[in-house]
Amino acid sequence: MLVASNDSRVEKGKLFTILVVLFVAAGAVYFFLPHLNICLNPRSAVLFYYIRQGLLVLQIMASVLFLLVFFAHGFVIQGILNCIMLTGNCVELVLFSDALSFTGIVASSLTLVICYFIFRDLRARDTDYKELNRIAFSDDLTGLVNRKKIMSTISNLIDAREHFTIMFIDMDNFKILNDSMGHQVGNIFLNEVVHNIGRVVDPEMVFGRMGGDEFLLIIPYRMERDELEKFAEDVNCLVSLPFLYKSRSYTVTCSIGIADYPEDADTELDLLHRADLALYRAKAKGKRKAVFYDIKMKHEFDERQQMEQALHQAIDNNELYLLFQPQFNAAKNMVRGYETLVRWKSPVFGEVSPSSFIPIAEENGDVQLLEHWIIESAFSFYVRMSEQHKIAASSLLTLNISFVEFRNPFFVEELQDLIAKTGMPPDRVELEITESVCVQAAGLVAERLTELSVLGIRVALDDFGIGYAALNYLQTLPFSVVKIDKSYVDSAAAAVSTRGAVVESVIRIAHDLNLEAVAIGIENEKEYQCLVEWGCDYFQGFYLSRPLNYEWQG
């Protein structure tokens, strides 16, 4: 809005300036004509007299117009001066006397004074509007245009019916840097990213910050798909440049969602939403990728929205249920414990995989309610089955805990309440957290593990080996168990397998650190025999037992 009103004001200011110049010119001619009379013959003098009176009438008419403009726009001083000038001109016109030409001198002088005040005020107001525009449409941290200006630019391009492309850019693991090093360092990093990306942004493009670690780039002309892919890769390479701070190097990547106008959407909000969907897909595909919007993404998003709404009601409608998958020792004759698995049987979507609905619960905040239900239900089941002597008293009950729940400041307290409510033995509880949780909040993990160990609760490091350097965490954090990721188990029995050597090394390291090793996802005899040979302690997978239902017998 400020930009539109300022542009309008500039146009009006130009017109006003032209009128003022004509006004001054008329006043000057009016003032000098009497002095020219002495050099003219009588007939010419009469002509000049009438011309002079005509100019006087024009000045009076202009003065009336300016008087209205001055007071309407707050030019009080100019309005008062204009009243004086208007009065003098009217007196001279009525009396038709050259003897009162002094009023002409006053009028012309006041005209110059008025012009001075007008231009001074206009300059001050123009400066104020420029500063207001800068504040309203620029990002304080980076100096880029902000979200409001970005949306205004997109709207203007759509109104002009011009083809253009937007790139929604989001940092992949900026939160880790920001949380571990502090917001001040995070701000320094964002400015470094802006500087780096600026190397490939040409003057016609609009590069702005949407908020947080999200940026948007508008390319106001047509680029071929391969050119856009190359440009997006250049952006990602520039974002990925090492960030040096106090002799330490950090690397952050970005994901990019790309959408075109008018192919993908015909309004600014829809276009931004399409780019956001493409960005979400880029992150789901493993991050550090650029993805173009596709109509299938919209259908998937709509289905996801429906699933999210249904998930809100799943607990109340008794649509969730638990399964328990046994873990065996090497001889297959002793059950170490049972891992708790949650399943959702939706009347709309049928059997829904946890890999589909757990991420939704984590994003919309339902995960804490969901995990509270899982923990309480699993505890109650374990106690009941133990009382019925259907499970050994030494069996462990294993539960997965999300990062959202783990960082809950009341997590340990709420866990204690559930233990007391259900009568669950705390030394039979084993919680699993992934390596990614350790990476995101190592300090918090150390604090939580200490609190849990005081209660006698064991903690396992789940999905070991999926891409993070976790050996340091095994040495410094009080874990009891290492669970080897299924991807390593799947290739462990290959004839020539580097991962097999890795699995064997992990098992050996775990034993050196007085930890137990559990292999998950075992699906055949060959995998099982290799793991036994390498000294793995416990085993879990379909080859040994499928998950058991809630009321299994014996």
Q: What are the SSEs and their pairings?
A:
Blueprint: H1 2-37, H2 42-72, H3 76-95, H4 101-137, H5 147-159, E1 164-171, H6 174-181, H7 183-197, E2 206-211, E3 214-219, H8 225-239, E4 243-245, E5 248-250, E6 254-261, H9 268-284, E7 290-292, H10 295-314, E8 320-329, E9 335-346, E10 350-352, H11 354-364, H12 367-387, E11 396-400, H13 403-406, H14 411-422, E12 429-434, H15 435-440, H16 442-455, E13 458-464, H17 471-476, E14 481-484, H18 486-492, H19 498-512, E15 516-520, H20 525-533, E16 538-540
Parallel strand pairs: 6-7, 9-11, 11-12, 12-13, 13-14, 14-15, 15-16
Antiparallel strand pairs: 1-3, 1-6, 2-3, 4-5, 8-9, 8-16, 9-10
Helix pairs in contact: 1-2, 1-4, 2-3, 3-4, 6-7, 10-11, 12-14, 18-19
Question: What does this protein structure show overall?
Answer:
- The protein is an alpha/beta fold.
- It folds into 3 domains: 2-137; 147-293, Alpha-Beta Plaits (2-Layer Sandwich), CATH 3.30.70; 304-540, EAL domain (TIM Barrel, Alpha-Beta Barrel).
- It is built from 20 helices and 16 strands.
- The chain has an 8-stranded mixed beta barrel with strand order 8-9-11-12-13-14-15-16, surrounded by 4 helices. A 5-stranded mixed β-sheet has the order 2-3-1-6-7. A two-stranded antiparallel ribbon has the order 4-5.
- α2 (42-72) packs antiparallel against α3 and α6 (174-181) packs antiparallel against α7 (183-197).
- The longest helix has 37 residues, at 101-137.
- The two termini are 72 Å apart.
